[in-house]
Amino acid sequence: MQQYEDTIVAPATAPGEGGIGIIRLSGPCAEEFLQSFFRPTSGEKSLQSHRLYHGKFFGPGEHLIDEVMAVVMRAPRSYTREDVAEVHCHGGNLVVRRILDHFIEAGARLATPGEFTLRAFLKGRIDLTEAEAVIEVIRSRSEKACSLALSQLDGKLSRTVYRFRDLLQEQLALIEAYIDFPEEDIELPLLRRIEEGVAGIQGEIEQILQSFDAGRILREGLSVLILGRPNVGKSSLLNALLGEARAIVTEIPGTTRDTIEENLVLGGIPLRLVDTAGVRHTEDPVEREGVKRAREKVRFADLVLLVVDGSRPLEDDDYLAIEACQGVRTIIVANKTDLGQHPLPSKVEPIPLVLTSVHCGDGLEELQRHMVEMFTSEGNGEQGESPMITDRRHRQALVHCRQALIRFFEGMSGGMGHEFLALELREALSALGEITGETTPDQILEKIFSKFCIGK
Ligand code: GDP
């Protein structure tokens, strides 16, 4: 296990004005550094672990810096499993900065991004999926995404991965016992047992891989594209959904030339709403570029809100927009129903339809309900015992594991030798180890921890 000689320090609270600012130290000298500047009001000489003390923070020459609270958390009962000390001072950049500078002058080193969590990982307090979950909890944009990250932090994914690892290791041991006897066939009942064990894991991996899309949506947000020909009310709809004037609403067709993106949370699902230039035939080069971009965006959207003027018959440009949406989940929003209702032709009937009048606020709630239902029915993060994955790195590792298991089965039915079968199981194990950090290459670790903020 890695031991650090140095003591790191960083502000643990976000920069700027706030109620309090926290400066955190971790390493062998954490307590000593705290003691050199902090005088508890109680006058106690030594501080008890895990107890918050009121007192004063003095700079060199008994220069009072701030009235503070301080705590020492001795190893191993701390976030990093090292000695940790914290000073809670009044919020504001100046005081935090001064306290930090005094610690650095005393010999502490400013922590790099994520270094506290990296130490916790290297000391074995948390594994890699849990470290990654810390970032997700900090960054999550909606309650559902946060509870998903919390369940990962709680070790749900790693527990499953460890269970797979143990099971695969069992099968590997059974096969390895035969490696020294290449001439001997594995007994049939044993062979069946190995096969069943591996097949069970493969099935569970498939299930987890299937959760990736729904999990990704919860984490990254659902990309909702608002599409339609000019002047049907796309910008007005975007504004109404956001509840504020963000896109410019005008009566001249084709003013939303580029795309506008906004974030909001609907029914616990984060959405990225994108308003596009209207789809229509045009010779204006600026608009033509916008139309092209809208078509490209349709391909990457999770959902398209196709807005039409519901008070009038559809036009060629509406059909052009409908055509652009083929193969993508779409809701037709027939807007301007306050001006009348024109029935839609039967050929667009299979596409779900919501009637709205953005002007009067009609149909907006129904539209929102419809949008949420489309996704919650497919997976809402509460999948019972099976963990949900949201991270591309985890997905890739599971895909590698699955590939090795498939090769294992092919090898089995093709009568390959014990050594070959064992090799594939070892491959599968190594792929699993990448998820928890046991076999993760250093460059990848560096990349993961550099995503953290300083002080975490
Ligand atoms: P876009 O070009 O599709 O983004 O359309 P806009 O949102 O800019 O709206 C075009 C015009 O239609 C504006 O004058 C809006 O006020 C008007 N509009 C939008 N929604 C409605 C509606 O529900 N009813 C009526 N009567 N007018 C609307």
Bound molecules: guanosine-5'-diphosphate
- Report the portion of residues in β strands: 15-25%
Secondary structure tally: strands: 13
Question: Which fold name corresponds to the CATH topology of the largest domain?
Answer: Rossmann fold
Task: Report strand order across the widest sheet.
Answer: 3-4-5-6-2-1-7
Derived from helix and strand composition plus strand pairing, the structural class reads alpha/beta
**CATH class descriptor of the largest domain:** Alpha Beta
Over the alpha carbons, how many angstroms does the gyration radius reach?
Answer: 29 Å
Shape: flat
In short:
By secondary structure, this protein is of the alpha/beta class. The chain has helices spanning 30-37, 93-106, 115-122, 128-139, 143-153, 156-179, 188-210, 212-220, 234-242, 285-300, 316-324, 364-376, 392-413, 418-436, 442-450; strands at 8-11, 20-26, 38-40, 53-59, 63-73, 84-90, 109-110, 222-227, 260-266, 269-275, 303-309, 330-335, 353-355.
Features of the shown structure:
single chain, 456 residues, alpha/beta, Four Helix Bundle (Hemerythrin (Met), subunit A), seven-stranded mixed sheet, flat, binds guanosine-5'-diphosphate
Q: Mind explaining what this structure looks like?
A:
The strands form two sheets. A seven-stranded mixed β-sheet has the order 3-4-5-6-2-1-7. It has a six-stranded mixed β-sheet with strand order 9-10-8-11-12-13, with helices on both faces. It has three domains: 8-126, Gyrase A, domain 2, CATH 3.30.1360; 154-211 and 388-435, tRNA modification GTPase MnmE domain 2 (Four Helix Bundle (Hemerythrin (Met), subunit A)), CATH 1.20.120.430; 218-379, P-loop containing nucleotide triphosphate hydrolases (Rossmann fold). It has 15 helices and 13 strands. The protein has helices at residues 30-37, 93-106, 115-122, 128-139, 143-153, 156-179, 188-210, 212-220, 234-242, 285-300, 316-324, 364-376, 392-413, 418-436, 442-450, and strands spanning 8-11, 20-26, 38-40, 53-59, 63-73, 84-90, 109-110, 222-227, 260-266, 269-275, 303-309, 330-335, 353-355. With 456 residues, it is an alpha/beta fold. A hairpin with a 2-residue loop joins strand 9 and strand 10 (269-275). Residues 244-252 and 378-383 have low confidence and may be disordered. Helix 4 (128-139) runs antiparallel to helix 5 and helix 6 runs antiparallel to helix 7. Residues 228, 230-236, 249-251, 256, 278, 335-336, 338-339, 357-359 line the site of guanosine-5'-diphosphate.
